[in-house]
């Protein structure tokens, strides 16, 4: 695949990606009990003061401090991280699970703010904003014809709950400008993407991270699926980098009987804290399946490990990331914060699932490449395990520590060896960009279609596969899609469904070609 130059400026206003794999107990830190007398601290403060007072050129001492903090943390472990004040609000919103705004998915398209879709029941939908609208002004602030960075754009669309903003729109379908006044409101950032039925007895819940609202979202989904007759629940934590441990523990608790071990932590002083299940879980008797992959980390691995070690259900997929370190957050007083590793996780069998990090952070986070080349992503036999790290589940099955959760049932990457570039491309933002442009050019073609009619229409032609290949070429990507046509068509149809209908329809289509889901349906 030859790549020249391509721009994928997709911005999902309702979902902010985490910049780091956060996982762990993000507890409130108590600084008054945490400092010790150390002359080196005084040395560092005196140096910064000296530079600020007497250095020959103007220097941003804040940036020097940032570099110093990062340099210190890099000497510790890959998950002890510094979060600058510019990043902190974004990370906090994602973990809190909401923000205050107007409620649209959008991206910058040809120097204008194009609405992909207003969020259901959000301020924009209630005000009559439609997919394809361009937002020209927020009050009197011009948003078009300028390459606005997100940190300049977001404050114009966000604000206090109940605050008003007048938006000037251009509606392409009617070739006219209009103004709408709306009140900003709390917009959820969903951590549970979807809860749907795979067949009459199997329910499916996709969790993208463990935020403050995750258990509440999951519980709503679980109760809905139980009401529909689900006897088996599939929890999908693929590509879930973790988050708040307590949310994963609550979910595990729903599946385990009273006093079943869930997780333990051990700090530098040898203190061990154990967490056990309580009584009255919502799904203690039904069948449980957890889906994991190489990007399932931290709290995702704690959930999978608790289910596996208690012999409560099956783990399907590929070996998880291998993050078994607990972080605690300490605010630094200027809007920034440090997340410091303070303990290690252990699964109920006593396993530490933390993989080694002695080769440095770059090697640690790029281990996917090593797994790819050694064949682990395609053959379970290629997974390297240490006999010295054998552990036993509740019923005596052998499991291994030392680097992630090894699934009970292995499922390779979708497709044949060599399909990875196409698969990764189809999972990128360029698909959303392409679909929006196609709809923007001829939205009337899909007006009045229900979901079933849309599927029949899409399945009957390959025109969008051909258009997508030409679209890639126009953006500098040379890729022959002939041998990948079914995969490409499935991804495109799913994205069309998401933008035309709802998130559930996206998953309904996408999951039909999913090898792990196919494995689930065999059982």
UniProtKB/TrEMBL annotation:
Q: Which Pfam families match?
A: CtpB_N-like, PDZ_2, Peptidase_S41
Q: Does the keyword tRNA-binding apply?
A: no
Question: What Gene3D superfamilies does the record tag this protein with?
Answer: 2-enoyl-CoA Hydratase, Chain A, domain 1 (3.90.226.10), 2.30.42.10, 3.30.750.44
GO biological process: one example: proteolysis
**From what superkingdom does this record's organism come?**
Bacteria
Task: Tell me which CDD domains the record gives.
Answer: cpPDZ_CPP-like, Peptidase_S41_CPP
Residue stretches making up the Tail specific protease domain: 175-361
Kindly state which keywords UniProt assigns to this record, in alphabetical order: Hydrolase, Protease, Serine protease
The keyword S-adenosyl-L-methionine appears for this protein? no
Annotated GO MF terms: endopeptidase activity; serine-type peptidase activity
Which protein family is named in the record?
A: Belongs to the peptidase S41A family.
What is this protein's record name?
S41 family peptidase
Q: Which organism's genome codes for this protein?
A: Flavobacterium piscinae
């Amino acid at each position: 695949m030859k790549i020249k130059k391509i721009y994928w400026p997709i911005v999902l206003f309702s979902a902010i990606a985490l910049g780091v794999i956060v996982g762990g107990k993000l507890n409130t830190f108590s600084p008054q009990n945490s400092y010790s007398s150390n002359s080196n601290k005084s040395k560092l403060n005196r140096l910064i003061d000296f530079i600020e007072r007497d250095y020959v050129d103007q220097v941003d001492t804040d940036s020097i401090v940032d570099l110093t903090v990062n340099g210190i943390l890099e000497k510790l472990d890959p998950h002890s991280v510094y979060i600058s004040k510019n990043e902190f609000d974004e990370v906090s919103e994602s973990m809190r699970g909401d923000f205050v705004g107007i409620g649209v998915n959008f991206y910058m398209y040809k120097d204008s703010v194009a609405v992909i879709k207003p969020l259901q029941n959000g301020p924009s939908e209630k005000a009559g904003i439609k997919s394809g609208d361009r937002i020209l002004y927020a009050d009197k602030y011009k948003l078009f014809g300028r390459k606005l960075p997100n940190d300049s754009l977001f404050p114009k669309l966000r604000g206090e709950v109940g605050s008003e903003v007048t938006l000037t729109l251009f509606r392409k379908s009617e070739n006219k400008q209009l103004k709408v006044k709306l009140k900003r409101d709390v917009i959820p950032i969903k951590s549970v993407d979807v809860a749907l039925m795979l067949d009459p007895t199997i329910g499916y819940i996709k969790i993208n991270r463990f935020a403050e609202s995750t258990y509440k979202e999951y519980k709503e989904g679980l109760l809905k699926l139980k009401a529909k007759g689900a006897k088996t629940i599939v929890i999908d934590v693929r590509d879930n980098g973790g988050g708040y441990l307590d949310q994963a523990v609550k979910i595990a608790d729903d599946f385990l009987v009273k006093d079943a071990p869930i997780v333990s932590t051990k700090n530098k002083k040898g203190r061990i804290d154990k967490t056990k299940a309580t009584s009255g879980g919502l799904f203690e008797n039904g069948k449980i399946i957890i889906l994991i992959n190489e990007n399932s980390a931290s709290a995702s691995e704690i959930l999978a490990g608790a289910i596996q070690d208690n012999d409560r259900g099956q783990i399907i997929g590929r070996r998880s990331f291998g993050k078994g370190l607990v972080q605690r957050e300490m605010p630094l007083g200027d809007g920034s914060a440090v997340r410091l590793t303070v303990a290690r996780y252990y699964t109920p069998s006593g396993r530490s699932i933390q993989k080694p990090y002695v080769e440095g952070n770059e090697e640690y986070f790029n281990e996917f490449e090593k797994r790819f080349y050694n064949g682990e992503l395609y053959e379970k036999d290629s997974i390297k395990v240490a006999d010295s790290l054998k552990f036993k589940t509740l019923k005596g099955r052998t499991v291994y520590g030392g680097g992630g959760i090894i699934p009970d049932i292995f499922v390779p990457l979708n497709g044949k060896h060599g399909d990875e570039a196409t698969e990764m491309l189809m999972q990128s933002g360029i698909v959303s960009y392409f679909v929006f442009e196609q709809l923007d050019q001829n939205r009337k073609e899909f007006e009045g279609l229900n979901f079933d009619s849309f599927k029949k229409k899409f399945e009957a032609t390959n025109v969008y596969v051909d258009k997508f290949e030409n679209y890639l070429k126009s953006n500098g990507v040379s890729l022959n899609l002939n041998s990948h046509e079914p995969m490409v068509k499935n991804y495109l149809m799913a994205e069309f469904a998401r933008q035309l209908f709802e998130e559930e329809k996206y998953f309904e289509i996408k999951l039909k070609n999913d090898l792990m889901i196919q494995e689930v349906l065999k059982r």
